[in-house]
Amino acid sequence: MSKGEFITTVEEAEEAYSKELGTVYTPKQIGEAYQMPEARMPGNGEAQIDSIKMFINGLGDKNPLFRDEEYARNTKYKDVIAPGVYLNTCWVPSGTIVNPRVNNTLRSFNSGAAWEWFRPIWRGDKFTFKAISPSKVELKTSKTAGKTLHIHSRFEYTNHHGELVGIGSGYSIKAPREEIKKRATYTDVPELKITPKDLKDIQDAQDREIIRGATPRYWEDVELNEELCPVVMGPTSHVEATSWYAIFPTYATRSDKLVRNVAYFEGLGCKESLTGAPTTCINEMIERSMTNTQGWIPGAFTSGGQQAAALVFGGQRLCWQSILLTNWMGDDGFLWKMNSRYEKFHALGDTAWYKGKVTNKYIDEGKYCVDIDCFAENQRKEITQRGKATVILPSRKQGEVIYPVPRIEA
Length: 410
Known about the structure:
By secondary structure, this protein is of the alpha+beta class. The protein has one domain (about 10-390): Hotdog Thioesterase (Thiol Ester Dehydrase, Chain A). Helices cover about 25% and strands about 30% of the residues. The protein has helices at about 10-20, 25-35, 35-40, 50-60, 70, 175-185, 195-205, 240-245, 260-265, 280-290, 315-330, and strands at about 25, 80, 105-115, 120, 125-140, 145-160, 165-175, 230-235, 295-300, 305-310, 335-340, 350-365, 365-380, 385-390. The strands form 3 sheets. The protein has a 10-stranded antiparallel beta sheet. A hairpin with a 3-residue loop joins strand 5 and strand 6 (about 145-160). The longest helix is centred in the C-terminal third of the chain and has 16 residues, at about 315-330. The protein is globular and about 65 Å long. The two termini are about 35 Å apart.
């Protein structure tokens, strides 16, 4: 492939990304790589009460520990803290940061993420991060897309004390659009119909959600196979989908004149319907979400199949899963690890029931740990997302949670 040519095949993409393997980026270097430092600096560098509230309001998280200052003063933290997934407002872990010149003939899917946290996020904490991108590149074969490229990246978030607060890893899959069309997935998605009774049932389930809050959940009281109270998200509206864009760092919420280079690097075939100007794939998705009134659009993605005209981003779905866990563990618990794999799309109009079950409990170097299997199920009873988590709980014997010490990778 000659210099300057677009990458059009999975094999060419593997070669290009493999050359970048192990590249380390700071926020400033990301901006420089895109030739637009104004638009590619992190969206948030400090945990303040207003930005925390904006984040959890965008997610639909009602936990008072993250929003109510008077309530929080009576907890062990003595102030509002942010959930661990708040670090997404600095930068969302995804498969790639700087894309080689990959043509729009290859479609990219945000397919999964994993997080590990080491300390609470306090009001006033200032953050920076470094990213290793890509950290791994894998060529695989898929039933739905043939040859695919799995691209992983790792992000390390540090506070102003120099302490490692969290590590986020994400991966995306690049697949040939034409091959996906040939294999015609999502051919049997029924027309979206939500009756008044359906809506009432969903809202009643949301009203039954339990936030453990100030009542400690002690490790000794947890039983194997114990089920967590479900968290219900949906039916996903335009506002629900687009709220994510307002709370995570992206060029999607910046002026067009700041994102022209990103459009050049990433769009490569994506255009605005109104002006015909090149745009990014994310901006194209936002436009679809703002104009779509049908949910799943027949034939928009596959020959004879269907694609959601607007999809909920993987990062948003991962944060929804975290609400299930922080609701259950209470103020005195600590979410140590969480991962999620997105197995099916979540589109406008869809509803997700997030559920979990305790699979193990054990003591790890003084930390009283509980492992939980999580999944999301939509209104068609399809499992759309699976994940695992580890929560550290207070102990009647030991007392408060011991926070984990980062383990250095070999």
